[in-house]
Amino acid sequence: MEKVSRALVSVSNKEGVAEFCRTLQNLGVDILSTGGTAAHLVKEGIAIIPVNDVTGFPEMMDGRVKTLHPRIHGGILGMRDNTDHSSQAEEHGIDWIDMVVVNLYPFESVSREQNADNEELIENIDIGGPTLIRSAAKNHRYVTVVVDPRDYSRVAESLAHEGAVSPELRRELAVKAFRRTAAYDACIDRVLSERILDEQRISFFYGKGKNLRYGENSHQSARFYLDESVYDTSVARAGQIHGKEMSYNNYVDADAALEIVKEFDEPAVAVVKHTNPCGLATGKTPRQALENAWDGDPVSAYGSVISCNRAVDLDFANFLKSRNEKHISYVIEDGTLKPRTVPVKFVEVIVAPRFEKDALDLLSKTKNIRLLQTGPFSKIQEDLFTCRKITGGMLVMEKDAVVWEDFTPATKKKFSAVKKKLARFACVAVKHTKSNAVVLAREYRPGLFKVAGMGAGQPNRVDSLRKLAYTKMRENMRIEFDAQSSKQEFQEYLLAAVKEMVLASDAFFPFDDTVREAGSLGIRYIVQPGGSKRDKDSAAACDELGIAMAMTGTRHFKH
Questions:
Q1: C-alpha dihedral, 386 to 249 to 465 to 331, nearest 10°
Q2: Residues spanned by CATH 3.40.140.20 within the chain?
Q3: Reduced to 3 states, what is the DSSP secondary structure of residue 449?
Q4: What is the architecture of the domain spanning 244-373?
Q5: What does 188-251 look like in DSSP terms, one character per residue?
């Protein structure tokens, strides 16, 4: 435990520094300071020793040189129990400095100002500050370094109770200090590389890494790292309030699910399997949205990840776990889905802004279900880019943050106002579905929408429609319809429903084959990005078949 007798304080961000220094002074600590910090502390009634009184040199060159002196850095770097260091310090009149409180010139914030020129940026590159920080951090066996105002209270408490700063805290603060200078220098590298060399560079700083049980597969190890600079509503920052630890796949699917429901202002629920929204619906209540999202693919919903953009209430929880509900799963027998009763509906993860107490009590009876609570959804959007590691490199792109740029009718038949809302819902769903993607969406109640069928990840869009989206929609409609009805009655019901659905495609149609396939299935509304040389052929086919088609101008490939 090293006693603190002398502290050097030189900060750009003066938040809380006067209160901290007043505490140090009351504990008998002498305070050395420089320039603006010294003036601020004196104004607050805190006695300081000017650094130039220690060095014997005035601050010079517009403050560029003030602490770069052996009587400062010797006082920080000297090893107290090294007799050679001690004798040299005594010979040259060097007094030990036991604490360094420094934060840096605001290069990062100045670099974000659009009108900041290179001269202003360079003047905001701190030299003495990083040197002091690194010196103190290197000699943390004897010296406490504080670079974050949020740590003032911890250090003050340690001094007040122990009379010194514990070795454990000094070590922690030293690592944090090196981390700070690394991030600072990386920002300078990135900004000046772009401005001076016209070279784009990127650095990543992620903290609080933790081991996961395994990666995508059991033979792969995995870790999770938090981006401490981003405060968007996210799975990364959600608190886990119940269940066994998250796996790699849980994180990936929960992130996909949460990003979908963040698109909606009205209550919405996404049911995700392998990052695809096999179910998605809006509702007047979370329970209504959940029921209809679940019905989007009740087979795939087994073992899924669910997200909701409203608080999870007891009614929502009852649908999944109540013993008073009838829980149905489905198996395939003789080529058709057959219902079977199960004790509860099995899901891996639920992520929501909040869980009401009675809902949490019920859901927590299932030992392994993971419950993630994000808090109220924030409008902050700091995480504007997405990255993908490839062998030997990194791909970085802007996030896909829009649903559509436009909505331009391309056919004689038009979209009503309600059908346009349904089209937008379908485009949100297709935006979050792996390419090639086709989504069929329907209005199941006035103003409420759901995914009726989804086709994802196919080499061509016709297969996504014909083999997957339509087939899944037909199965779901059959479950919904009276099982005792005749095939003829069901077919009439199906055709009537399909005529009111909207088909959304993630990319343009290179030929009119998808239009003609959709027409043969009874679909009468299509929304797609457009942009093909053969857009006119697709529009002509729509007019021939009595289909309304609109172009959004926005492609949503998702690989």
A1: -170
A2: 244-373, 402-551
A3: strand
A4: 3-Layer(aba) Sandwich (3.40)
A5: HHHHHHHHHS---------EEEEE-S-SSSTTS--EEEE-TT--SS-TTTPEEEESSPPPHHHH
3-state secondary structure of 202: coil
Q: Structure pTM?
A: 0.85
Dump pLDDT digits (tens) for 404-445.
999 999 999 999 999 999 999 999 999 999 999 999 999 999
Amino acid found at 361: D
Whether residue 274 lies in the annotated active site? yes
Asked whether 372 and 351 are in contact (CB, 8 A), the reply is yes
Burial class (CB in 10 A: 0-12, 13-18, 19+), 14: middle
Bridging pattern class, strands 448-455 and 525-528: unpaired
Phi, psi of 91 (to 5 degrees): -60, -35
**Residue spans in the chain of domains classed CATH 3.40.50.1380:** 6-196
Q: Which of 14, 85, 274, 420 is catalytic?
A: 274
DSSP labels, 398-423: E----S-S--EE-SSS---HHHHHHH
Residues 6+ apart with CB under 8 A from 484: none
Kindly state the percentage of the chain with pLDDT values over 70.
99
Q: What number of other Cβ atoms are within 10 A of residue 189's Cβ?
A: 14
Tokens encoding 420 = 């346009």
pLDDT digits (tens, 9 = 90+) for 312-347: 999 999 999 999 999 988 887 887 778 889 999 999
The pLDDT of residue 482 is 67
The rounded distance, in Å, linking the Cα atoms of 439 and 429 is 7
Q: In which residue are the tokens 């590298």 written?
A: 189
Q: Which two tokens stand for residue 278?
A: 């096999």
pLDDT band at 484 (very low <50, low <70, confident <90, very high): low
Give the Cα separation of 370 and 347 in Å (integer).
9
Q: Which of 370, 345, 82 is nearest to 249 (CA)?
A: 370
**Alpha-carbon distance 99 to 216, whole Å?**
46
3-state secondary structure of 43: helix
Residue 131 vs residues 70, 453, 486: alpha-carbon distances, Å: 12, 61, 83
Does 138 participate in catalysis according to the annotation? Answer: yes
CATH superfamily of 6-196: Methylglyoxal synthase-like domain (3.40.50.1380)
Residues 492, 504 contacting (CB under 8 angstroms): no
Please tell me which residue in 14, 85, 138, 413 is annotated as part of the active site.
Answer: 138
> Which class is domain 402-551?
alpha beta
Taking the C-alpha atoms of residue 290 and residue 494, their distance in angstroms, rounded to an integer, is 23
What pLDDT, on the 0 to 100 scale, is given for residue 186? 93
- The pair of structure tokens assigned to 499 is 């005529």
